[in-house]
Specification:
single chain; alpha+beta; Creatine Amidinohydrolase, Chain A, domain 1; Creatine Amidinohydrolase; globular
């Protein structure tokens, strides 16, 4: 028995050492606990009287067998806490509550320590870490939630996002599955009717208002958030610039994706903000093409690269379309320059007070009238432009603008632009094989997407490190790349 206890003691000491090391190794430009607390206070101020807001962490996603995808925290949860681990729940109260003989206006439940799990997967924050590092005054372990006395029927509103029933029931006590199930019981959540509580007296569940409140908060970026977005955008555009120099016929889409993502990692971006889209020729006409599997991009094709880095949780969203051989054909340049014209027209109109709808209208006007002039449309009559199968504009089938931030399509109000919003402007024209247009236009996909900071009297282009003009792209593609001298072994002939 002495050996057993001694072994456990050594293991616990090992975990403590790991915990200290992990804290010491964190980047020095993460958002601070003060930032996250301020956001909780901001939410509390706009919550309705006598209400509680409830946020759950993201589930762990299974990849295959006993392997999981890299964990990514729910953006709302991270925004309000800074916590990056799974199996947690946050409660924010409008008014101070007396619970378990303690006065509190917020409480967080996190994973408990587990020496064996931490040996394999790394140190956990625990409730002590939630208090010391996240600066929560009240923090508990998930296993303590079952006996935590909260009378949800006393609130006029219990605000939370509805459940998607995609959370696995793991062997771990107090995991996210248990937290959700216990919450459902406590709040009177009727699984047969997702919009109605079990008991009429508990019919205070509100599955709608919380998202409206979070859009108000997250749409306007603070100075700290803008600084991280600038870094994410700079990393992304540096990668686009380098890819322009390195691309040549015969490379695979996957190789080109790798060029971008290597640069991201070089600048310590944790991940991509979304699945990288690298599509050559016809593949570029697939709006969310993600397999990036074409083994050889061809001389004469365009390649569309929609790739953005995630830095400290914040993601850029940048798209460039370039000729694989470094030179646009006549038709490719005409389409490209038309998209450039549409984006520039929207940029000139972009400022606080402008509506999202007006930016969309102006890009559509420029694109549609330009396509009529080029002969791809007979007129701007919807009957001539709308594809009957999709109900969308045949060659410009998507919107032009969205917020970016903790999500690539970030939360934010989408009526009027306000100072401090960070948005994309991304018109595009896609002419796939088999289109009713003349065959000379087939296989031409073009999207130009840039990130803009909305200001009082205009908007700042954040992503100007990567060239936008067709002439500038052709010029930079003649430059040598840092990847040019990369010489890897031919593994197909290694014995």
């Amino acid at each position: 028995m002495r050996k057993t206890f001694a072994g456990v003691g050594v293991l616990l000491l090992f975990i403590q050492i790991i915990t200290v090391a992990q804290v010491a190794q964190k980047p020095d430009d993460l958002l601070t606990p003060a930032f996250h607390k301020a956001k909780r206070d901001d939410l509390r101020r706009i919550m309705p009287p006598n209400s509680v807001a409830v946020f759950f962490s993201n589930p762990v996603r299974s990849r295959a067998n006993d392997g999981s995808y890299k964990y990514h925290q729910d953006p709302n949860f991270y925004y309000l806490t800074g916590h990056t681990e799974p199996h947690a729940v946050l409660f924010i109260f409008k008014e101070t509550q007396l619970i378990n003989k303690a006065e509190l206006n917020e409480v967080i439940f996190v994973r408990q320590h587990n020496a064996l799990k931490e040996l394999y997967d790394g140190a956990r924050l625990g409730k002590e870490g939630a208090r010391e590092q996240l600066k929560f005054e009240v923090a508990y372990e998930g296993t303590e939630f079952m006996n935590f006395k909260i009378d949800f029927s006393a609130f006029d509103k219990v605000l939370f996002y509805d459940f998607f029933n995609d959370v696995r029931n793991t062997e771990e006590v107090g995991d996210l599955f248990e937290l959700i199930e216990q919450f459902k019981q406590k709040v009177g959540y009727d699984q047969k009717d997702l919009n109605v509580a079990i008991e009429p007296k508990k019919n205070n569940i509100d599955l709608v208002s919380l998202d409206v409140l979070m859009q108000k908060l997250r749409g306007i970026k603070s100075a700290e958030e803008i600084a991280l977005l600038r870094k994410a955008v700079n990393i992304s555009t540096a990668a686009h610039l380098e890819a322009m120099k390195a691309i040549e016929p015969g490379m695979s889409e996957m190789q080109i994706q790798g060029l971008h993502e290597f640069i991201h990692k070089h600048y310590t971006a944790e991940d991509q903000g979304y699945q990288s889209i690298v599509g050559a020729g016809q593949n570029g006409c697939v709006l969310h093409y993600r397999i990036n599997y074409k083994p050889s991009v061809q001389d004469g094709e365009l390649i569309l690269m929609d790739v953005g880095a995630e830095y400290r949780g914040y993601t850029a969203d940048v798209t460039r379309t370039i000729p694989v051989n470094g030179k646009f054909t006549k038709e490719q340049k005409l389409i490209y320059d038309l998209v450039y014209e549409a984006q520039t027209a929207a940029w000139k109109k972009c400022k606080a007070g402008t509506t999202f709808a007006s930016l969309s209208e102006i890009t559509n006007k420029v694109v549609n009238e330009g396509l009529v002039e080029l002969g791809l449309y007979k007129s701007t009559d919807p009957a001539d432009m709308v594809d009957s199968a999709t109900g969308r504009n045949r060659y410009y089938p998507h919107g032009c603008c969205h917020h970016i931030g903790l999500d690539v399509h970030d939360k934010g109000e989408r009526d009027v632009l306000k100072e401090g919003m960070v948005i994309t402007i991304e018109p595009g024209i896609y002419v796939p094989n088999g289109s009713p247009a003349d065959q000379k236009w087939w296989n031409i996909p073009v999207r130009i997407e840039d990130d803009f900071l909305v200001q009082k009297d205009g908007c700042e282009l954040l992503s100007d490190l990567a060239p936008r003009k067709s002439e500038e792209i052709e010029k930079v593609m003649k430059e040598s790349s840092v990847f040019t001298t990369l010489d890897l072994p031919d593994i197909d002939h290694v014995k």
